[in-house]
Amino acid sequence: MRSSYRSGMALGALWMAAVLLPAPAGPFDGLVPVAAAAPVGLPAPRAGETDRRERLARILIAADARSRRPAAGEESPADPGPYGVVDADVGRTRGEKAGLEGRLAKARSDLHGMAEASIRSGHCTPVDLDGLQGETEGDQGSAGTPAVSSGGWTRPLLSYELTARFGSAGGRWSNGHTGQDFAVPIGTPVRAVGAGTVASIGCGGPFGISMVLRHDSGWYSQYAHLSAPIVPQGRRVRAGEWIGLSGTTGNSTGPHLHLEIRRTAEFGSAVDPVGWLRARGVDL
Questions:
Q1: How far apart (Å, rounded) are the C-alpha atoms in residues 130 and 140?
Q2: pTM for this one?
Q3: Is residue 3 part of a domain?
Q4: Which partner for 209 in 128, 226, 254, 282 could form a disulfide, CB atoms 3.0-4.6 Å apart?
């Protein structure tokens, strides 16, 4: 079954973001402005910047989780409407909704700014979200837990829209598109498609912040244009485990995940991810 990401965000998610994210009086503390970002080779971000990045990540993950869960006591309609789930408070004005949406957009923009600053500094370090996946999935129940096939494979995201496909032609790719793109907002949790080990984490270049997993079967998967990794190089991960946050770093025209399935760890060995996963019991 194909899952799709609807534009916008549930009001419940927006309200949660408003509670967690105070209205800014100016630039967020600890954010390195694009114009003032440190060049490659300078020290890693200060503790305050790291804490701020973690807080932004938690806000966006909470909003993503809330977007799939109806308000307490309400049933999901056949057509969830423009926000994807039941409106938690129909009495709120459009102005209030717009304000909440704007602050959520600000959080995404600032997380992206910090991702770009980390690339320029050469320090694409994991964001510490220890224990958050278990808490989030526990709150959501089955809606927050991906199905894993009998062979041990799963989707890299819970909600998304498939965009550029493997082999697509275009000016952005010299020899055709080498993966499958999934349109999702910045800060969406990205999951390992199968059990394996983090072989490498990329910090810059066309793929921006990226990660390659080495799977037990000998295949490799790559996740590109992230806003942050969650797990470090060398870490053992399970199918469906959070490994990074989606973004739009590198050669990207908008927020999305670029997924590759490779025969080796290196670029140039990719196969069609959609067909490969389908053959292993996972439909995108």
A1: 18
A2: 0.76
A3: no
A4: 226
Q: How far is 98 from 272, CA to CA, in rounded Å? A: 39
Q: Could you tell me if 225 and 249 are in contact, meaning their C-beta atoms sit under 8 angstroms apart?
A: yes
Cα(197)–Cα(16) distance, integer angstroms: 34
CATH number at residue 269: 2.70.70.10
Number of domains in the chain: 2
Q: Cα separation of 100 and 162, whole Å?
A: 27
Q: Which domain covers residue 76, as residue numbers?
A: 11-139
| Residue 187 vs residues 62, 104, 112, 152, 228: alpha-carbon distances, Å | 10, 11, 9, 25, 8
Q: Write out the two tokens for 228.
A: 């942050």
- Same domain? 190 vs 109: no
Residue 2 is assigned to a structural domain of this protein: no
Q: What is the dihedral of CA 87, 90, 96, 97, to 10 degrees?
A: 30
Domain identity same for 135 and 226: no
In tens, the pLDDT along 174-232 reads 578 899 999 999 999 999 999 999 999 999 999 999 999 999 999 999 999 999 999 99
